[in-house]
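Appendix C. Worked example: Cytochrome C551
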Amino acid sequence: MKKKLAMFSLAMLLLAACSSNNAGEKKKYHEGQNMEAAESVYKQNCASCHGNNLEGGTGPSLEKIGSKYSEKEIMSVILRGRNGMPAGILTGGDARLVAEWLKKEHK
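Step 2, the predicted output written as structure tokens:
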């Protein structure tokens, strides 16, 4: 009985340790994994001003935005707006996904 209790306690400890390592992790963009999702969100919400190919239009070009700004700065502009861009077009996970995609894929 003590052996079963010890094994159960060990299993619970390992399970808790594994889950706590991932609890606070931010989902990160990984090459190919979320690219289609980010492009889809961009095309639905951003392309009307920034162009289907990030070439610009009513809004500025985003073709080399990843070399100009950090992911945090891109995220700030997406969330808060800037100049003629209104705040809140994207929020939460969509904003994070597009910011990561722009930073990593458009240098």
